[in-house]
From TrEMBL:
Gene this chain is encoded by: LOC107020604
Name this protein carries in UniProt: Methionine aminopeptidase
Catalytic activity: Release of N-terminal amino acids, preferentially methionine, from peptides and arylamides
UniProt lineage: Eukaryota, Viridiplantae, Streptophyta, Embryophyta, Tracheophyta
Keyword Metal-binding in record: yes
Function: Cotranslationally removes the N-terminal methionine from nascent proteins. The N-terminal methionine is often cleaved when the second residue in the primary sequence is small and uncharged (Met-Ala-, Cys, Gly, Pro, Ser, Thr, or Val).
Residues bound to substrate: 127, 225
Keyword Cell division: no
Length: 297
């Protein structure tokens, strides 16, 4: 059980009611003329491809376009966050913006995922399914947008505040975003993948936060999820980054336990102790001297 005094250093924290599932509405249609990724139509979860995704100039241009769209969509989705909005309303708006841009919402039909975006509230650490539940004052919500445009996926997520959020939770969210940026800062051609998890853990540990090891960053490009898997916790993975390669970094930090439980829907994943979790994600391109954040504009 998650206890108030585990909100380290806080006096203003308020306990949120536990997350409950709402109703998931019917699947939204996608126009026939929008190209769909190959997994659409199969209920099976695609295997993580072992191929790293390294691009030529044309591939980089396409990655850029997909990633800029994903970045615009996540920011737009963030403007919709307020008490009483449902995550289903956010999903609908995101779905419409993506298809209006001629792109496909990558989560829709990925391993049977029924919606176009992941909406993860409070103790939901990731893969929340949009439903009829209304956001409440004091909630936090991670909105994770992936779009498939011109044959390439762009993947990004941010955690937003709904109304007045307690200081301790605000700090968790701020530090999680800092961890993402510290992780990106160690990236460059030739750098070891394991430096990312080391740097992220160092920063999180300063605040006593947990780094979830169950969910990882991933190669991305024409395939949604591929090698390299990017660990956000301390690890001894071998291998180093290559110029022209694209992958995501997407740390999840928690105020309490990093253990997780997944609902029977096979997606919604919560912290085992009900403590709040925050996540941020960017898709990056490895260059000779560093990394470029592609999911920005
Ligand atoms: N966007 C998520 C990621 O960061 C993956 C979501 S898969 C879904 O990798 F099916 F849940 F949408
Ligand atoms: Co994502
Ligand atoms: Co991702």
């Amino acid at each position: 059980m998650y206890r108030e005094r585990e909100l380290r250093g806080s006096t203003t924290a308020t306990r949120r009611p536990p997350l409950r599932r709402g109703r998931v509405s019917q699947r939204l249609p996608v126009p026939d003329d929008i190209p769909k990724p190959p997994y659409v139509g199969s209920r099976e979860l695609p295997e993580i491809s072992s191929e790293h995704q390294i691009h030529d100039a044309e591939g980089i241009a396409r990655m850029r376009a997909a990633c800029v769209l994903a970045a615009r969509v996540v920011d737009y989705a963030g403007t919709l966050v307020r008490p009483s909005v449902t995550t289903n309303e956010i999903d609908k708006a995101v779905h419409q913006m993506i298809i209006d841009a001629g792109a496909y919402p990558s989560p829709l039909g990925y391993g049977g995922f029924p919606k176009s975006v992941c909406t993860s509230v409070n103790e939901c650490m990731c893969h929340g399914i949009p439903d009829s539940r209304q956001l409440q004052d004091g909630d936090i919500i991670n909105i994770d947008v992936t779009v498939y445009l011109n044959g390439y996926h762009g993947d990004t997520s941010k955690t937003f505040f709904c109304g007045d959020v307690s200081e301790s939770i605000k700090r968790l969210v701020k530090v999680t975003e800092e961890c993402l940026h510290y992780g990106i800062a160690v990236c460059r051609d030739g750098a070891l993948y394991r430096k990312i998890g080391k740097r992220i853990s160092e920063h999180a540990e300063k605040f006593g936060y947990g780094v979830v090891d169950r969910f990882v960053g991933h190669g991305i490009g024409t395939v949604f999820h591929s090698e390299p898997l990017i660990f956000h916790h301390r690890n001894d993975k071998s291998g180093s980054m290559v110029e022209g390669q694209t992958f995501t970094i997407e740390p999840i930090l928690t105020l309490g336990s990093t253990e997780c439980v997944t609902w029977e829907d096979n997606w919604t994943t919560l912290t085992a102790d009900g403590s709040p979790a925050a996540q941020f994600e960017h898709t990056i391109l490895i260059t000779k001297t560093g990394a470029e954040i592609l999911t920005t504009y």
